[in-house]
Amino acid sequence: MKTVIKGKVRLAIIGAGGISRVHADGVLAHADTIACTALCDIDGERLQARSAQFGGVPALYRDWRRMLAQGGDAFDAVAICLPHHLHAPAILDVAAAGKHILCEKPMCLSLSEADRIAAAVKRTGITYMSAHNQLFMPAVQEAKRMIEAGELGRIRWLRSQDCFQASVAGFRGTWRSKRKYQGGGELIDTGYHPTYRLLHLAGAPVVGVRGSMGRYLQEIEGEDSASVQVRFANGAIGEILTSWAYGNPYGTHQIHVVGDKAEVFGSGNELNVLPAGYSQPAVKRFSDVPTFTRQMGCFADCLRSGTRPPHSFEEGRAVLAVILAAAEDARGWQKLVAKKGLPSF
Ligand SMILES: NC(=O)c1ccc[n+]([C@@H]2O[C@H](COP(=O)([O-])OP(=O)(O)OC[C@H]3O[C@@H](n4cnc5c(N)ncnc54)[C@H](O)[C@@H]3O)[C@@H](O)[C@H]2O)c1
Questions:
Q1: What is the pLDDT of residue 337?
Q2: Which own/partner pairs from 115-124 qualify as long-range (CB within 8 Å, at least 24 positions apart)?
Q3: Which neighbouring-strand residues pair with 275?
Q4: Confidence at residue 177, expressed as pLDDT on a 0 to 100 scale
Q5: Ligand 1 mean position to 107 CA, how many Å?
Q6: Residue 239 CA to chain centroid, in angstroms?
Q7: Fewest beta carbons within 10 Å, which of 30, 128, 170, 330?
Q8: Domains of the chain by range and CATH?
Q9: Which ligand 1 atom sits closest to the C-alpha of 19?
Q10: What is the Å distance from ligand 1's center to 126 Cα?
Q11: Whole-number pLDDT of residue 8
Q12: Does ligand 1 have an atom closer than 6 angstroms to the CB of 138?
């Protein structure tokens, strides 16, 4: 039986950098159900800037362990917005303190960390929500609804992608440029989104993964582009394409699902529906959804009602398993091309 929070959820945020701004927007948009009562960052300027966004947060810390030890009475839950290598240590500390968790992607960097997190969440009975914000995209939600309602028939093929040309200076020398902090390259970062979307839409266990990677533009240790093929237990074949070196290839979509009755494809607020045998799709348009705001509202609602978040540590582990398997497979390709004297990275 989950603990249900009566009244407003009191939230601490660890990591006051880039993404914490939209987590804060989400808290402010749901002021009736959640409030930020503590903030932590090693960088004093970022701490002050994020505190100012809230009009002043009562408790500011430079060390999350101190925050948990001394300030724990002031909050029920923690949003973790840290560089990737710090996710597992922070999750384990926060869980040990009995606080609920909303953690940015990826959950952690290895399956052994994922197993320790799973054990800690089960032992402590806290609620763990994976911050998979793109589950709240209208195109993804409508595609999932249609798949579950059987409107596409048997799913045969799926594709999920996220490609853009990112600024080289934006990553140079940052934690994202080092494998030991990032946990890999682009796939474990931006590529995490198309991966959880693919698994969510397929709705079946993964039985095999193939991966191929390249680095074309970014000055980072890992790949800046990845292509992944996923075989699902229901027979469907899935593809992921993701890049920081080039934009979405012309004519492609964030998601595309082909079933034997119909196919759907689209991005963001738009989903096209093409029944089998037709040549013109019907377009469904939805109003804009600020996905991070929706995510924060959902987290607060889960804690106040005792319900399971849409994605918890099980889904976080499944996504990571695909990414790690793709990276492992890609290493085989890299060895092969290096042996032939062809360009690798
Ligand atoms: N969902 C999305 O679309 C999305 C987009 C961007 C980032 N993210 C994720 O958000 C997380 C953070 O990314 P970001 O872009 O905000 O990074 P960032 O570098 O802008 O912010 C990280 C913050 O953590 C702080 N920090 C580092 N070590 C710390 C420590 N020991 N204790 C306390 N604070 C510490 C840094 O000072 C910095 O302010 C990552 O997991 C990233 O993948 C998600």
A1: 85
A2: 115/317, 116/88, 116/92, 117/88, 117/91, 117/92, 117/313, 117/316, 117/317, 118/313, 118/314, 118/317, 120/91, 120/92, 120/95, 120/96, 121/95, 121/312, 121/313, 123/95, 124/95, 124/96, 124/98
A3: 262
A4: 98
A5: 13
A6: 17
A7: 170
A8: 9-132 (3.40.50.720), 138-288+323-335 (3.30.360.10)
A9: 16
A10: 23
A11: 97
A12: no
Contact 177, 221 (CB under 8 A): yes
Does 40 contact ligand 1 (Cβ within 6 A)?
Answer: yes
Instruction: Please work out whether the CB of residue 14 comes within 6 Å of at least one atom of ligand 1.
Output: yes
Ligand 1 close to Cβ of residue 84 (< 6 A): yes
Q: Which protein residue has the closest C-alpha to ligand 1 atom 21?
A: 17
- pLDDT in the model for residue 342: 81
The span from the CA of 28 to the CA of 35, in Å, is: 7
> Which residue puts its alpha carbon closest to atom 40 of ligand 1?
83
Q: Residues 6 or more apart from 206 whose CB is under 8 A from it?
A: 199, 230, 231, 232, 233, 318, 321, 322
Is the shortest distance between the CB of 22 and ligand 1 below 6 Å? no
pTM comes to 0.97
CB distance 103 to ligand 1 below 6 Å: no
Residue where the block lists tokens 């290839």 = 249
The single-letter code of the amino acid at 7 is G
Sheet holding 270-275, edge to edge: 206-214, 225-232, 237-243, 155-163, 255-259, 262-267, 270-275, 282-285
259/152 Cα distance (integer angstroms): 5
**Mean pLDDT taken over the chain:** 97
Q: Kind and range of the H or E element at 301?
A: helix 291-305
Which ligand 1 atom is nearest residue 80's CA?
A: 11
* Model pLDDT for residues 97-156, shown as the tens digit of each residue: 999 999 999 999 999 999 999 999 999 999 999 999 999 999 999 999 999 999 999 999
Residues lower than pLDDT 50 in the chain: none
Task: State whether the beta carbon of 275 lies less than 6 angstroms from ligand 1.
Answer: no
In the reported structure, the alpha carbon of residue 16 is separated from the centroid of ligand 1 by a whole-number distance in angstroms of: 7
Let me know: does 312 contact 128? Beta carbons within 8 Å.
yes
